[in-house]
Amino acid sequence: MKLEQFFAPCPRGLEAALCEELLEIGASDVVASEGGAGFRGSWETAYKANLESRIASRVLWKILDAAYRNEDDIYQAAASLPWENWFSPSLTIKVALTATKSPLRSLDFATLRIKDGLCDRFRQKEGRRPSVDTASPDMRIHAHLSSHDFSLYIDTSGEALFKRGLRHFSVDAPLKENLAAGILRLSGWKPGIPLLDPMCGSGTFLLEAAQMSLGISPGYKRHFAFEKLLNFDEKKWEALRKESLEKQKPAGPLQIYGSDILGRAVETARRNLAEAGLEDAVELKQANFLELPVPAEKGIIVTNPPYGVRIGEQEDLAALYPLIGDTLKKKFAGWNAWFFTADMRLPKLIRLGVSRRIPLYNGALECRLYEYKMVEGGMRKKQ
User: Fold this and answer.
1) Backbone angle region of 173, left / alpha / beta, with phi > 0 → left and psi within -120 to 50 → alpha
2) What's the CA gap between 217 and 246, in Å, rounded?
3) Which CATH number describes the domain made up of 177-216+250-373?
4) Element (DSSP H or E) covering residue 62
5) Taking Cα atoms as reference points, which of 304, 333, 299 lies closest to residue 317?
6) Across the beta sheet with 256-260, what order do the strands follow?
7) Is 59 exposed, middle or buried (0-12, 13-18, 19+ CB in 10 A)?
8) In what helix (H) or strand (E) does residue 185 lie, and over which residues does it extend?
9) Tens of pLDDT along 161-195?
10) Which of the four pLDDT bands, split at 50, 70 and 90, describes residue 381?
11) Would strands 299-303 and 256-260 be described as parallel, antiparallel, or unpaired?
């Protein structure tokens, strides 16, 4: 069986977690790089990665690695590829390009030359060319330029993989689903361990944890771009989907708990869980974390506390963090608490000893994931 080369981008900071996940899915020669992981596998592996990966943003099929000096080299390379063997010219396309230390002056022009090469090849071989659709294309072509090398990929995913088709409602600045799934993995949480998100917002951590607990594949409700490729093996894909559905457990009460001080956030989370058929799996309540009853003797807290942009909000949070620290110490002995935040003041203000701090990115925003191991009487910093 021929193995193809793929690359799966992911939120920065989750590369090692993604590599572990890809190995579990059956990928081989998995290698982490900044912002993702390369791997080798069959087309069945690529289908499965799209269906099962909770951390990848996309699965890209590598179709070219070449040296280049200028835009003409890029055009010639794109025009020499057998695009007509991969997809029909009746499909719409979009070309996206990223670069690291490229000497080219205009990345927009380089992107245009890739599109021209692809379209000229189709015109020569098929007598017609694909149309461009920048909003919702059938086929996305990704290119990356380094200082001397040029790589081209066909996106097998289509819409980004964090678009699970489950979260229909959101509050301000919701976390992307794959970032939430990666944070849950980094926290060491596994199905069966009590999980609490006391500042749950639209419920992203809760949705991801409930899906994991019930064996629900993140991609089971959506379609993928690979279904439009000429080499698409419908029988293999249907067999994978059937196997995935057979592994799902019926939704019932789980030890997953969510709360928020804002009623509209709780209602949003409730609606998202209901849309996903998971309203019975998660216990939700409107409550202030400082007054929240402890739902189990031991467990894991994973939360994304509010982030203050304006001065007044920052002052409110500076007053709140020490109270959160007190609440953790007094009520949550035996628990591990993980806070994902862009507010680098949190560890100082919460006044508890940090056991781990993991750099992560929420898009372009630099963040940290802080772990606090709540041991009876042992974690408060000496003043």
Assistant:
1) left
2) 11
3) 3.40.50.150
4) strand 60-67
5) 304
6) 282-286, 256-260, 195-197, 299-303, 335-341, 365-373, 356-362
7) buried
8) helix 177-187
9) 999 866 566 666 678 999 999 999 999 999 999 99
10) very low
11) unpaired
Instruction: Report the candidate in 53, 138, 54, 155 with the shortest Cα–Cα distance to residue 97.
Output: 155
Q: CA 222, CA 237: separation in Å to the nearest integer?
A: 13
CB 118 within 8 A of CB 127: no
pLDDT of amino acid 309:
52
- Dihedral sign for Cα 229, 118, 2, 46, please: negative
Do 117 and 76 touch, CB atoms closer than 8 A?
Answer: yes
* Residue partners of 290: CB distance under 8 A and separation at least 6: 323, 324, 327
- Residue 201 Cα distances to 68, 267, 323, 333, 336, angstroms: 47, 9, 20, 25, 20
Class of domain 4-155: alpha beta
Tokens 């970032």 sit on residue: 179
Query: Contact 273/279 with Cβ under 8 angstroms?
Result: yes
234-247 and 43-52 are packed helices; what angle lies between their axes, rounded to 10 degrees?
40
Are 366 and 352 in contact by the 8 Å Cβ rule? The answer is no
Would you say 92 and 131 are in contact if contact means Cβ atoms under 8 Å apart?
Answer: yes
Binning pLDDT at 50, 70 and 90, where does residue 380 land?
very low
User: How far apart, in whole angstroms, are the C-alpha atoms of residue 240 and residue 251?
Assistant: 21
CA distance 22 to 37: 9
Q: Tell the residue number behind the tokens 């991969």, with chain if given.
A: 86
Residue extents of the structural domains in the chain: 4-155, 177-216+250-373
Which amino acid is present at 291?
E
Residues 37, 14: contact at Cβ < 8 Å? no
User: What confidence score (pLDDT) does residue 316 get?
Assistant: 78
**């996940």: which residue's tokens?**
21
- pLDDT digits over 261-315, tens only? 999 999 999 999 999 999 999 999 999 999 999 999 999 999 999 865 555 567 7
125/115 Cα distance (integer angstroms) = 16
